[in-house]
Write a structure and sequence with these properties.
By secondary structure, this protein is of the alpha+beta class. It is built from ten helices and five strands. A five-stranded mixed β-sheet has the order 1-2-3-5-4.
């Protein structure tokens, strides 16, 4: 390394020029050269080497019997070493400060990246929910209304058909009416899945109770919703995210948990709001789910992304044979930030 070459050259120069050389001036040069590298170990290694060399050269140069603690050249060498160590100390402090400044800059950059990613994710969720709402409106306005009109027309045909014709087409009319009614019901279910009107009108607790009622009818798994603390509306994006997390968690329960009971707890406290979906199913090892596979693992990733998009945190607690708890937590700071950004976006 060039620094060692310079150091050896200066040591040789010190030996050649006897004891009249300003040791602190020439031996401080290698330390200054090490400064930009911020290698503190190298800095103090050189400082130790140069300190030892300073006294070794003096011992080599001083005539036998001439050594004295008050001897001028010895005192100068001691002062030179003190100056040398002071230079090393100042450089060390500067290196530490520079490293701390860089670390802080990197931390700020990472936080800014996370904040920007959260804003982008939140915006994507908002766009997705807007598209869901638009699709639900189109289903209602186009398909739903036309099916309702078709149902009315078929009923009119059934009523006005002459007895002879009714005997021939009555069964087909009944089948057609039943199919139309089933299709209308399916369209309503799809519209509710896309964008439950209950969420907009009555909030998260109401939509969770509505969805749990549908879930119990479909799956037959005993499921309850518990509300703890005062009722408080969250920002729309947060309510949407919590509802979708509950949907995904219940879908996972239905697919994998083999549970007999599920409890959804919406807890509001002074420091934030949390939603917990707990089941008594077979459980699993969360540490084994690093990356989603072709047929499983995507639900957890989607839930985490939804939570992250609104500034919430999601944790999964599970043990094989002891059930699973999915916990989404939104602090008041994140909630207020989301509400502020939503107001800014709308304005």
């Amino acid at each position: 390394m060039a620094v060692f070459a310079v150091t050896l050259a200066l040591i040789a120069l010190d030996i050649i020029t006897w004891i009249e050389l300003d040791v602190a001036a020439i031996f401080g040069l290698p330390l200054v050269l090490v400064g930009p590298t911020r290698n503190r170990r190298l800095l103090w290694s050189l400082a130790a080497l140069l300190t030892i060399t300073t006294f070794a050269v003096y011992a080599f140069q001083i005539p036998k019997g001439a050594f004295n603690l008050k001897e001028t050249f010895f005192v100068n060498r001691v002062l030179d070493v003190v100056e040398l160590l002071l230079i090393a100390t100042l450089l060390h402090v500067r290196m530490v400060a520079a490293d701390a400044s860089d670390a802080q800059a990197r931390l700020i950059a990472r936080q800014n990246e996370k904040l920007e990613a959260a804003r982008v994710s939140r915006r994507l969720v908002e766009v997705q929910e807007t598209e869901r709402r638009a699709l639900a409106d189109q289903l209602h306005d186009l398909v739903g209304q036309k099916l309702t009109a078709l149902n009315i027309s078929l009923n009119i045909v059934k009523i006005e058909a002459v007895p002879a014709m009714a005997a021939q087409i009555g069964a087909r009319l009944e089948d057609s009416l039943r199919l139309v009614e089933e299709t209308i019901e399916c369209i309503r279910d799809v519209m509710a899945e896309l964008r439950p009107a209950v969420l907009d009108d009555y909030g998260l607790t109401a939509v969770l109770r509505w969805y749990v009622e549908q879930f119990v009818k479909r799956m037959g798994i005993a499921t309850t919703v518990i509300e703890q603390g005062p009722t408080r509306r969250l920002p729309p994006a947060a309510e949407e995210a919590f509802f979708r997390i509950a949907q995904e968690a219940l879908a996972n329960v239905a697919k994998y948990a083999h549970a007999g009971k599920v409890t959804l707890t919406l807890a509001t406290a002074s420091d934030g709001t949390s939603l917990t979906i707990a089941d008594d199913g077979c459980g699993f090892d969360p540490s084994a789910c690093h990356q989603p596979a072709r047929d499983h693992g995507w639900g957890l990733m989607i839930m985490r992304e939804r939570a992250y998009a609104v500034g919430a945190e999601l944790s999964v607690e599970s043990t094989p044979g002891r059930g699973t708890r999915v916990i989404a937590t939104l602090s008041n700071d994140a909630r207020d930030l989301g509400a502020h950004e939503a107001i800014g976006a709308s304005s």
